[in-house]
């Protein structure tokens, strides 16, 4: 703990706002009274740590609005609980949170490894410090809540919009199927976080999400134009209510350097854990010929207008292509898919013939995979390429768990992460 201690007295309704950085630490302890951090009550005499650039006390807070939203959702849940299972599915809250970048949306959403589209069931209170990156949290039935993740592999939704919509459709179908299997749990509802990027087809993208997830509540943060747009769009739909919320004065704009550091920090937490719960990562060696590494589309797609007259694009955003394992994938993030036989079949060779082969001449495993099976396959976890030895035909990866990688079918992302000390 820092030796420069400062005592700050907050009145009811005031906030201590701290701008987070990546090169400093701060610790705060609640001495007397009652206080909360993002809705979680802080314990007296407990120390809470983090990193900061600046801090100040604000006399206004958006938490009253957040509390009203929480109470409205809770009231809707209570009403849904009294209905039949079929009616409960439609009556439970399904909240879509919209807003530009750096408006505070993700406080109501979730954080995962960059380059994915995911859903997580929460049946517990989150650690106010580690938040959505808390690991190994046990739910009220004694099990562990695992996220459902699909590989997207890019940072912005506008990079590959058709692929993004295809994956959102798959995610929505899976979520709906799970809700129907467990209608008693569906009354909790759904909270959907969205990208802060607003491309030209943003409204179409949002309308797709509203339809796919049967959204009945929309919360727009800061952007009055989009609030009015969606009020007009759904004015005849009595099942959808729309609310507007001002951005908190404590939300700051983040530059590209900060976002890059934050992204790296998120990936690091995946492998090494958080301040309150450290994790051990493991170095695993894989045979290159045993790995089926794929990617969606090509590294770059020329605009359709540049193609010769009468020709159509032969490579689409969702086309699956094999990737060579060489130095180009060094330090890249790779998704390990929940995909095995019969979706991915391996060619068999005679064991005697296999034993006589030189290690460099091992037969390459043939993965016969359909595009739909790859698109529909959830992600088991992530690995990071640490080194490649083409002479010995091995690749070394950083893995969050020991032992063999559970699947040899993998997808390459555009996201690079270099492990650093500290």
TrEMBL record:
<feature type="domain" description="Clp1 P-loop">
    <location>
        <begin position="110"/>
        <end position="273"/>
    </location>
</feature>
<keyword id="KW-0067">ATP-binding</keyword>
<dbReference type="GO" id="GO:0051731">
    <property type="term" value="F:polynucleotide 5'-hydroxyl-kinase activity"/>
</dbReference>
<dbReference type="InterPro" id="IPR027417">
    <property type="entry name" value="P-loop_NTPase"/>
</dbReference>
<dbReference type="InterPro" id="IPR045116">
    <property type="entry name" value="Clp1/Grc3"/>
</dbReference>
<feature type="domain" description="Clp1 N-terminal">
    <location>
        <begin position="10"/>
        <end position="48"/>
    </location>
</feature>
<dbReference type="InterPro" id="IPR038239">
    <property type="entry name" value="Clp1_N_sf"/>
</dbReference>
<feature type="domain" description="Clp1 C-terminal">
    <location>
        <begin position="282"/>
        <end position="419"/>
    </location>
</feature>
<dbReference type="GO" id="GO:0006388">
    <property type="term" value="P:tRNA splicing, via endonucleolytic cleavage and ligation"/>
</dbReference>
<dbReference type="InterPro" id="IPR032324">
    <property type="entry name" value="Clp1_N"/>
</dbReference>
<dbReference type="Pfam" id="PF06807">
    <property type="entry name" value="Clp1"/>
</dbReference>
<dbReference type="InterPro" id="IPR032319">
    <property type="entry name" value="CLP1_P"/>
</dbReference>
<protein>
    <recommendedName>
        <fullName>Polynucleotide 5'-hydroxyl-kinase GRC3</fullName>
    </recommendedName>
</protein>
<dbReference type="GO" id="GO:0005524">
    <property type="term" value="F:ATP binding"/>
</dbReference>
<dbReference type="InterPro" id="IPR010655">
    <property type="entry name" value="Clp1_C"/>
</dbReference>
<keyword id="KW-0547">Nucleotide-binding</keyword>
<dbReference type="Pfam" id="PF16575">
    <property type="entry name" value="CLP1_P"/>
</dbReference>
<dbReference type="InterPro" id="IPR038238">
    <property type="entry name" value="Clp1_C_sf"/>
</dbReference>
<dbReference type="GO" id="GO:0031124">
    <property type="term" value="P:mRNA 3'-end processing"/>
</dbReference>
<dbReference type="GO" id="GO:0005634">
    <property type="term" value="C:nucleus"/>
</dbReference>
<dbReference type="Pfam" id="PF16573">
    <property type="entry name" value="CLP1_N"/>
</dbReference>
């Amino acid at each position: 703990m820092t030796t420069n201690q400062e005592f700050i007295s907050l009145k009811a309704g005031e906030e201590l706002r701290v701008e987070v950085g990546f090169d400093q630490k701060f610790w705060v302890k609640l001495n007397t009274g009652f206080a909360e951090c993002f809705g979680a009550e802080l314990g007296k005499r407990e120390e809470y740590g983090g990193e900061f650039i600046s801090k100040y006390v604000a006399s206004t807070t958006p938490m009253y609005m957040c509390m009203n939203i929480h109470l409205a959702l809770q009231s809707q849940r209570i009403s849904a609980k009294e209905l039949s299972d079929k009616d409960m599915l439609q009556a439970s809250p399904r909240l879509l949170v919209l807003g530009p970048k750096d408006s505070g949306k993700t406080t109501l959403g979730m954080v995962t490894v960059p380059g994915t589209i995911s859903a997580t069931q929460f049946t517990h209170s989150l650690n106010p410090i580690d938040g959505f990156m808390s690991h190994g949290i046990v739910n009220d039935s004694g099990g562990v809540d695992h996220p459902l993740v699909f590989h997207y592999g890019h940072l912005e939704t506008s990079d590959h919009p058709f692929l993004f919509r295809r994956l959102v459709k798959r995610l929505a179908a899976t979520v709906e199927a799970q809700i129907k299997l467990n209608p008693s749990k569906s009354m909790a509802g759904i909270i959907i976080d969205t990208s802060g990027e607003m491309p030209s087809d943003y409204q179409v993208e949002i309308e797709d999400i509203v339809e796919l997830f049967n959204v009945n509540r929309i919360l727009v943060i800061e952007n009055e134009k989009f609030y009015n747009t969606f009020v007009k769009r759904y004015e005849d739909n009595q099942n959808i209510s729309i609310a507007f919320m001002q951005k908190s004065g404590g939300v700051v704009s983040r530059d590209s350097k900060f976002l890059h550091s934050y992204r790296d920090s998120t990936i690091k937490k995946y492998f090494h854990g958080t301040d309150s719960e450290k994790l051990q990562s493991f170095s695993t060696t894989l045979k290159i010929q045993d790995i089926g590494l794929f990617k969606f589309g090509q590294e770059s797609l020329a605009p359709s207008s540049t193609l010769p007259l009468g020709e159509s694009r032969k490579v689409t955003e969702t086309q699956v292509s094999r990737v060579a394992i060489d130095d180009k994938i060094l330090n890249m993030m790779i998704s390990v898919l929940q995909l095995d036989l019969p979706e991915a079949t391996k060619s068999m060779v005679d064991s005697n013939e296999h034993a006589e082969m030189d290690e460099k001449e091992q037969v390459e495993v043939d993965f016969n995979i359909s595009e739909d099976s790859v698109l529909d396959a959830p992600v088991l976890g992530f690995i990071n390429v640490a080194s490649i030895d083409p002479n010995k035909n091995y690749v070394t990866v950083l893995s969050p768990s020991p032992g063999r990688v559970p699947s040899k079918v993998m997808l390459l992302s555009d996201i690079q992460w270099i492990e650093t000390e500290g």
